[in-house]
């Protein structure tokens, strides 16, 4: 009889726990998450980039601004190196002692230096290295400012106007102290397109 009562008590406790977790995790949490999403519809929708009423991408995922051969298009700000393919994101897993990585970075440095008409030692690190995911939409302000003269020349715009776009696009550190200042390349190029029209 005691074993039966003990089993019945354990079953009642398990049923109450199941009911509680069903209520909290199956009903309350989804309602809370839905309410939070409705408070931030743009972010919940994937932070779409909209040009002329058409969704052209997401400001959370980097994009390439290259031609069909993979060469940089001179009238756009360029992103970090990366595949920008969400289905195949990830780093190369090449470490600092890798000769393949060193050769790739050196080649990219020469290409960026030639594109921007600057000495190779003025090319910032993020211009020649991909992010860990390969999808980062941000570059450093240094890399953005390095590109200003080329973009201004290619679009026949005053360099000061293009520099002002970069100034406005620089986002500070998260919470004022986390990370480094960044520039979202897609948002900067969208602003550039608006300036040029």
Automatic annotation (TrEMBL):
Domain of life from the UniProt record: Bacteria
Per its UniProt record, what InterPro entries does this chain match?
KdpC
Membrane topology term reads:
Single-pass membrane protein
Specify where the region named Disordered lies, as residue ranges. Answer: 82-101
Gene Ontology terms, MF aspect: ATP binding; P-type potassium transmembrane transporter activity
Does the record carry Disulfide bond as a key word? no
Its primary localisation, in coarse terms, equals: membrane
Any Gene Ontology CC annotation = plasma membrane
Alphabetical keyword list: ATP-binding, Cell membrane, Ion transport, Membrane, Nucleotide-binding, Potassium, Potassium transport, Transmembrane, Transmembrane helix, Transport
Report if keyword Transport is assigned: yes
Pfam families cross-referenced by the UniProt entry: KdpC
Q: Function of this protein?
A: Part of the high-affinity ATP-driven potassium transport (or Kdp) system, which catalyzes the hydrolysis of ATP coupled with the electrogenic transport of potassium into the cytoplasm. This subunit acts as a catalytic chaperone that increases the ATP-binding affinity of the ATP-hydrolyzing subunit KdpB by the formation of a transient KdpB/KdpC/ATP ternary complex.
Q: How does it assemble?
A: The system is composed of three essential subunits: KdpA, KdpB and KdpC.
Instruction: Provide the family line.
Output: Belongs to the KdpC family.
Q: What is this protein called?
A: Potassium-transporting ATPase KdpC subunit
Organism, by scientific name, is Arthrobacter caoxuetaonis
